[in-house]
Design brief:
By secondary structure, the chain is an alpha/beta fold. The protein has one domain: Rossmann fold, CATH 3.40.50. The protein is built from eleven helices and 18 strands. Strands 4, 5, 6, 7, 10, 11, 12, 15, 16, 17 and 18 form an eleven-stranded mixed beta sheet that branches. Strand 6, helix 4 and strand 7 form a beta-alpha-beta unit.
């Protein structure tokens, strides 16, 4: 892969030359030696296009157990609708070839009730191997080993597939899994460690990435969708962006997602909406805030999918009588996560759902609903 050294400095859009600071947003400095692909994976070949596949039988809402047969059909129909390919294998070949080293970015933070579904991950692996990608060239990855251990994908996947984390747990004590030469630098709250480094697996090993986030509320960003899953799940030291009631996620989420080679290698977005979390996210430690959208969304444009996700979460919160993710009222703030978990009208951070629109300004996708084309498919 052609590489060139560059330093990029970001405010509202990429701009080189000096540190930038727009309307009080923090100065963000991107350092990477990777040039973008001629056609970066985000927004990819289908900008502004989302296929939403729904099935009333994909999950038992009482037990929470997914229906493997229904999920397989949803995956097949979604991929064919997205690409227009006549065969499911042809749809997967639009993105992958046998020489690729493929990473599958899962979301494990919502264990036990809402993680990237075993059935979706297993079907993605099944389709990759069916078109000739060796199982030894497929990685399921997440930042934290303890979360991967809790979810335990291994029994659902073939032998030889690698399940990889960058560090043992969210303690910021081991940086060996991160690339020291590829990072975002920013001082957000006067912290000592001002760098967020990309995972070595992403920068130095993978050639393509499938992003499989969940339908989830998030206390600092409003939602944790395609953008946050791929960005915060591929870099170190990101929890520092939100504390003491304030969030810098507005600009940091999209900036991280735009850093090469992550942007160019993330070629497919599969939003797991079989289950969802409408409050207390990104975690799911109680069934109280669990719901079942019973859908999977497919696309290459993370902004378009996340724009739809904003409405899905906010509409569900309104139906439950909860405060909007767009509410910026200081009186909603409490400094206790326990208070937030007990009352969906309490925030511990002023949320930044505008991070999705900001990502669009970086060229990562389509935010305008009038330009997003949704194809609904029922299985």
């Amino acid at each position: 892969m052609h590489r060139r050294s560059f330093v990029r400095l970001l405010a509202a859009a990429p701009l080189a030359g000096s540190f930038q600071n727009l309307s009080g947003r923090p100065a963000l400095r991107v350092v990477s030696s990777y040039a973008p692909a001629s056609a970066p994976g985000m927004p990819g070949p289908y900008p502004g296009r989302v296929v939403a596949v729904k099935s009333d039988t994909c999950v038992d809402t009482v037990t929470g157990r997914a229906n493997d047969e229904a999920v397989r059909e949803m995956m097949a129909r979604g991929m064919r609708a997205l690409t227009g390919a006549p065969m499911t294998s042809d749809a997967w070949r639009r993105f992958f070839e046998p020489s690729d080293v493929v990473g599958i970015k899962v979301n494990c933070g919502g264990h036990p009730f809402c993680v990237s579904a075993y059935e979706i991950v297993a079907e993605a692996v099944r389709q990759l191997t069916a078109i000739g990608v060796p199982v030894s060239q497929i990685y399921v990855y997440e930042r934290f080993q303890n979360q991967l251990d809790e979810v335990n994908y291994a029994p659902h996947l073939p032998d030889g597939l690698k399940i990889v984390a960058a560090e043992r747990a969210n303690r910021n004590v081991d940086n060996s899994g991160y690339d020291p030469a590829t990072y975002l630098e920013a001082t957000l709250f006067g912290e000592e460690d001002t760098r967020s480094n990309m995972m070595r697996l992403v920068s130095r090993r993978l050639t393509k990435i499938i992003n499989i986030p969940n339908v989830k509320d998030h206390g600092a960003t409003g939602v944790t969708g395609c953008l946050k899953n791929i960005a915060y799940g591929s870099f170190s030291n990101v929890a520092r962006t939100h504390q003491r009631g304030k969030s810098h996620t507005y600009s940091v989420v999209g900036t991280l997602a735009s850093i090469e080679p992550l942007r160019s290698r993330t070629v497919l977005q599969i939003m797991d909406g079989i289950r969802g979390v409408w409050h207390g996210g990104p975690f799911a430690r109680t069934r109280r805030y669990l719901f079942h959208p019973r859908q999977i969304m497919f696309g290459t444009d993370p902004v378009a999918i996340d724009r739809l996700l904003l409405d899905i979460i906010d509409q569900k919160r309104r139906a439950e009588g909860a405060r909007s993710i767009w509410d910026r009222s200081p009186e909603s703030l409490r400094d206790s996560a326990r208070a937030r978990d007990a009352d969906p009208n309490v925030n511990i951070i002023i949320r930044e759902p505008g991070h999705v629109e900001f990502a669009a300004t970086l060229g990562l996708g389509t935010y305008d609903l009038a330009r997003i084309k949704v194809q609904n498919v029922t299985v």
